[in-house]
Amino acid sequence: MLSTIPSFLSASDLGFATAAGTRMTMLASRGETEEVVRVFQSAWVVVLVSSATVAVVALTVVWLVPAKLYPASHGFSADGARWTLFLLVIYGILCLQGSIFLAGFRCAGLFALGVFWLTNTVLLENAIIVVLVMWGYGPVHAAGALLVCRLCALVIQNFLLRAKVPWLRIGFSKAHRSEVRQLWAPAVALLAFPIGQACYLQGTALALGAATSNAVVPLFSATRTLSRVGLQLTQLLTHAMMPEFSAAVARKDDKARIAMVGTILITAFAIVVPFSVILAWLGPDIVAMWTHGVIRPAHSLTLVMAATVLLGGFWNPLASLTIATNRHASFAYPFLILALGTIPLSYFASLWLGETGAGVSILVLDVCMCGVTLRQSRVTLFEVHELRRFLRALKVRAHVGLSTKRS
């Protein structure tokens, strides 16, 4: 439970690292390296100042809160909880600094290298914790190991960035207020997504528990977790393609832009359609098998969640591509409002339909977001006639390839 603290701290950069990464990628694709350095250093100043401010406030709270308010159990004292939180706060702040370095890899066409290094860092951190637990160490040592491991990884990440992208100078001499002002709107808009996700992922479960009972919540949560597997699969290609999409938009390469939009949509539907069918048909049996028979949701719930996978597989990739252009404010705030609305809707729908009501509230969110995202996508991503032309060309190539194979 204490280890969730770093995830809350991840919002303290106000989205500047992600927004800066998009802008840096678009500038780099046009060869404007000096502008890239200005954006990089300006964003890093904001990340440092905001994260330092949050760290001071968080650490002050950690040391001023009375010991009796800390969780304590056999083998884990209140002082141990205090030291664990102290180390985790610093660890979370270090993670934020890595996000701006990842933006540097992304703008230089080295997104895969940056993500590879980051994921291996997380893998190593978790492996070290497992070893410490096996040796009998507790949460304080685990938090300390996380901190040391992330600090070492950050130093190596810094050296890697300087070696691979020597023109991206690390420092603050080129930072400028105008760049901060330009990044402000897309950066703040990005905050709507983690807040909205917390509302409809955690808020719906809380509303369901309040409307029915805590015993019903696992039926919904397990089914929702299974449904999100399909959505996560659709985002694999999207996340990998986002830097290339930013570059194509910046170069005004319409052919590449439409090809990427079409490819991502086709791939997403190729994943979510069969996944939704399987979830709708065999969902209760899969969840029962997964939980060793402890949880078996109603068939109505799996049907509703299958529909959310189908709709989410359409609007989530389009939303990610729009974020890659830093023009996402027009649907980020509607998403936040709709996500907040799922909480009361989930409560009242659950009074009527039980756990299926919580699923209905998410389905309503997905239906509305499909409309909002489609409207925004026609402004920022594609025109309908462009997408039709791409699909016709793809059909012709597939027909020619099939004819060639037969001959």
- C-alpha end-to-end distance: 63 Å
Our count of helices gives 14
Order of helices and strands: HHHHHHHHHHHHHH
Radius of gyration: 23 Å
Helix % is over 70%
Indicate how many domains the architecture comprises.
2
Shape: globular
The helix-and-strand class reads mainly alpha
Secondary structure layout:
Elements: H1 5-9, H2 16-29, H3 33-64, H4 78-107, H5 111-134, H6 139-164, H7 177-190, H8 192-211, H9 217-251, H10 254-290, H11 299-323, H12 329-353, H13 355-380, H14 384-406
Helix pairs in contact: 2-3, 2-4, 2-7, 2-9, 3-4, 3-7, 4-5, 4-6, 5-6, 8-12, 8-13, 9-10, 9-11, 9-13, 10-11, 10-14, 11-13, 12-13
Structure, explained:
This protein has 407 residues and is mainly α. The protein has two domains: 182 residues, no CATH class; 210 residues, no CATH class. 83% of the residues lie in helices and 0% in strands. The mean pLDDT is 85.
Quick rundown:
With 407 residues, this protein is an all-alpha fold. It has 2 domains: 2-183, no CATH class; 191-400, no CATH class. It has helices at residues 5-9, 16-29, 33-64, 78-107, 111-134, 139-164, 177-190, 192-211, 217-251, 254-290, 299-323, 329-353, 355-380, 384-406.
